[in-house]
């Protein structure tokens, strides 16, 4: 009888401890955060830290490496292929992003007008974004093929050129070719995002500007562009980040060739680390991308901060 | 400053005609208010005047010039929008000076004119602020400032006060009227609020379903509404309407619902037994022994006056008294309209008799 009573008391105590813990805001809050923290650590922080660590070691596939400090970076700084890939990456990012922005903005403005079959046209514009990258890359590979290229074929039939263009064999041809493929793929994202931005601009602003005497060009310059600038900053940051770290398109179309002319830092990193087996060196190349990415993020961060007019009432 | 002539203007969206031939003469310097319920076409007409909508047929002229095919920016008009349409990325000063900047005015000229407009509207301390940092009333004034700076031929206002709270609305009403008295620019003002129309207008245009019901000064419309619609639209609380017949037995009377007898000053010729609508404004009732039987339903004192809702012949009417009668719901009283202030309308057409 007494024993039973004691165990019942213990049970009450234990359950009340749990109950009390779950009633505490701090404990409950911490419990709710556990899954998110676990996912972040497992899939974000750990790989990033591992990448940093590997970059400081001479790890090869199949063997444990040892810490060698900044030696990977020192040797990379003397590596002309690495510097070529840095140049390629910057060229690829700047050229593709500028054209993506120009075409994307143009399309967004066009789609914002009254068009017949508007929603259908919008859906079509999104198509390149929907097709899996590798699939579209393979299509481009065919388009750029030295013997079966449809572009060369059309141009020859039209009598504009006499020889097939060597799209992927010549370094600059190859660079422009992959830039074109990236533009095709990236334009929908820019266009649709800017279109969403355009639709938030009140039509009465344009009417007011119209009455104020603004021409179409002036309305674009004084209303559309400034009102759209926060969205432009966001979409271009994303676009630059995605282009800078691009891997799939290049790897499928050129694998970095010809003679490394289209190697981006990401593809070079993969080649050195996985194909070549030098995990340490590959990781170091990846780590070398971080300063560029951080710079791009900071640039847009400060670009976004500048627009004081968006901030709320402050007397 | 200019006169404005609207002649037989029609507007269709597709096959759907929303304005059925509207003609409104507006004199130089006049303050004209277009008033009507939503969907009556008043805003569409204003936008056609501004050049933001095409004119399907008819002509609009500003001054001596027909502007049907003139671009909005060349019409020399300024408009204040319902949502103010301030450029959020420009300061108050830049908003007001934008039209001058587009015309390549020198920055001295722009500064001078913006400063002057800001002084008129008490906006001087706010010139460096962005619209987001302003209150509703301040934004409203900036929108007006943007119009003033241009010194246009005509000001257009599209329900400019409907986004403000009641107290501010009354204050801005006075401010706009004062501004007009000072600048004397021809003004066309659209509102659905008949009190705004009554208090501000030199001339009110009552619109309904795409036609002009009546034009005139506020008191003309109040005292002599041409039809039942205008009578019911102008005035608050609204005019009471009772359906019935005219009886001429020596003296003219009105026989309302359930045999209620109400006095008439005179009957229209040959109208014995004619079905009519008897209209009487709430303030034209008095308590008199020879009045009609009424049973009080609700009493609403507002301090300066008391609104009394009562049943007369089974129909609810409202009466307004400035005297402080002691009424309670359920009380039986005798209500008598002043026969000289009674309005009679034809039952079928709604026209004034």
UniProtKB/TrEMBL annotation, chain A:
Membrane topology: Multi-pass membrane protein
Record-linked Pfam families: BPD_transp_1 (PF00528)
N-terminal signal peptide: none
Keyword Transmembrane assigned: yes
Transmembrane regions listed in the UniProt entry: 27-49, 90-111, 123-144, 183-202, 223-244, 284-304
Listed GO CC annotations: plasma membrane
Compartments where located: Cell membrane
Predominant localisation class: membrane
SUPFAM superfamilies to which the protein is assigned, alphabetical: MetI-like
Keywords, ordered alphabetically: Cell membrane, Membrane, Transmembrane, Transmembrane helix, Transport
InterPro entries on file: MetI-like, MetI-like_sf
Key word Lipid biosynthesis present: no
Gene Ontology biological process terms from the UniProt entry: transmembrane transport
Record Gene3D superfamilies: MetI-like
Family to which the UniProt record says this protein belongs: Belongs to the binding-protein-dependent transport system permease family.
Name the record gives this protein: ABC transporter permease
From TrEMBL, chain B:
Role this protein plays: Involved in beta-(1-->2)glucan export. Transmembrane domains (TMD) form a pore in the inner membrane and the ATP-binding domain (NBD) is responsible for energy generation.
InterPro entries associated with the record: AAA+_ATPase, ABC_transporter-like_ATP-bd, ABC_transporter-like_CS, ABC_transpr_MalK-like, ABC_transpr_MalK/UgpC-like, Mo/tungstate-bd_C_term_dom, NA-bd_OB-fold, OB_MalK-like
Entries under Gene3D superfamilies matching the protein: 2.40.50.100, Nucleic acid-binding proteins, P-loop containing nucleotide triphosphate hydrolases
Domain of life: Bacteria
Residue ranges of every copy of the ABC transporter domain listed in the record: 4-234
Main localization (coarse): membrane
Annotated organism of origin: Bradyrhizobium betae
Keywords, ordered alphabetically: ATP-binding, Nucleotide-binding, Transport
Any one Gene Ontology BP term: carbohydrate transport
Protein name: Sugar ABC transporter ATP-binding protein
Compartment(s) of residence: Cell inner membrane
Record CDD domains: ABC_MalK_N (cd03301)
């Amino acid at each position: 009888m007494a024993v039973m009573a004691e165990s019942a008391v213990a049970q009450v105590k234990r359950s009340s401890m749990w109950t009390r813990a779950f009633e505490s805001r701090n404990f409950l809050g911490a419990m709710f955060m556990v899954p998110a923290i676990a996912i972040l650590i497992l899939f974000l922080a750990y790989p990033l830290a591992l990448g940093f660590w590997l970059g400081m070691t001479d790890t090869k596939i199949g063997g444990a490496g040892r810490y060698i400090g900044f030696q990977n970076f020192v040797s990379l700084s003397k590596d002309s292929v690495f510097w070529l890939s840095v140049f390629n990456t910057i060229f690829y990012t700047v050229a593709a992003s500028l054209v993506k922005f120009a075409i994307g903005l143009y399309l967004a403005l066009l789609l914002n007008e009254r068009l017949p079959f508007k929603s259908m046209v919008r859906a079509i514009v999104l198509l390149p974004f929907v097709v899996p990258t590798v699939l579209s890359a393979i299509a481009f590979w065919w388009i750029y093929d030295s013997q079966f290229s449809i572009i060369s074929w059309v141009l020859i039939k039209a009598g504009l050129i006499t020889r097939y263009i060597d799209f992927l064999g010549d370094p600059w041809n190859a660079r422009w070719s992959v830039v074109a493929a990236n533009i095709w793929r990236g334009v929908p994202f820019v266009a649709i995002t800017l279109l969403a931005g355009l639709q938030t601009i009140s039509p009465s602003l344009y009417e007011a500007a119209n009455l104020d005497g603004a021409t179409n060009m002036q309305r674009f310059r004084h209303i559309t562009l400034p009102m759209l600038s926060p969205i432009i900053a966001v979409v271009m940051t994303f676009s630059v980040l995605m282009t800078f770290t691009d891997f799939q398109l290049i790897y499928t179309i050129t694998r970095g060739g010809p003679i490394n002319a289209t190697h981006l830092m990401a593809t070079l990193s993969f080649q050195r680390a996985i194909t070549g087996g030098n995990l340490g060196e590959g990781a170091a190349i990846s780590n070398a991308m971080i300063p560029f990415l951080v710079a791009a993020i900071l640039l847009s961060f400060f670009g976004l901060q500048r627009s004081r007019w968006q901030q709320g009432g402050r007397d | 400053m200019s006169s404005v002539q609207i002649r037989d203007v029609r507007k269709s969206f597709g096959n759907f005609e929303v304005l059925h031939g509207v003609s409104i003469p507006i004199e130089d310097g006049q303050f004209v208010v277009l008033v009507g319920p939503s969907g009556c076409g008043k805003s569409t007409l204003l936008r056609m005047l501004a050049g933001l909508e095409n004119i399907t047929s008819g002509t609009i002229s500003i001054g001596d010039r027909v502007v049907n095919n003139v671009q909005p920016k060349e019409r020399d008009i300024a408009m204040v929008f319902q949502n103010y349409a301030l450029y959020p990325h420009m300061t108050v000063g830049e908003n007001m000076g934008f039209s001058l900047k587009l015309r390549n005015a020198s920055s001295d000229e722009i500064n001078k004119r913006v400063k002057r407009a800001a002084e008129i509207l008490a906006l001087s301390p706010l010139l460096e602020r962005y619209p987001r940092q302003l209150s509703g009333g301040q934004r409203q004034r900036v929108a007006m400032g943007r119009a003033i700076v241009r010194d246009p031929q005509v000001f257009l206002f599209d329900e400019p006060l409907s986004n403000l709270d009641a107290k501010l609305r009354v204050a801005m009403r006075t401010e706009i009227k004062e501004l007009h008295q000072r600048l004397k620019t021809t003004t066309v003002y659209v509102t659905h609020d008949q009190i705004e129309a009554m208090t501000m207008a030199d001339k009110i245009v009552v619109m309904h379903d795409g036609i002009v019901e009546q034009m005139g000064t506020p008191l003309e419309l109040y005292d002599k509404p041409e039809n039942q619609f205008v009578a019911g639209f102008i005035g608050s609380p609204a005019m009471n309407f009772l359906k019935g017949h005219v009886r001429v037995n020596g003296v003219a009377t009105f026989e309302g619902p359930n045999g209620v007898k109400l006095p008439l000053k005179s009957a229209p010729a040959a109208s014995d037994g004619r079905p009519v609508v008897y209209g009487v404004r709430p303030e034209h009732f008095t308590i008199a022994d020879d009045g009609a039987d009424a049973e009080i339903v609700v009493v609403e004192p507002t301090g300066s006056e008391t609104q009394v809702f009562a049943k007369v012949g089974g129909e609810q009417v409202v009466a307004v008294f400035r005297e402080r009668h002691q009424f309670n719901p359920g009380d039986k009283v005798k209500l008598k309209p002043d026969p000289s202030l009674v309005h009679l309308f034809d039952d079928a057409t709604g026209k004034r008799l």
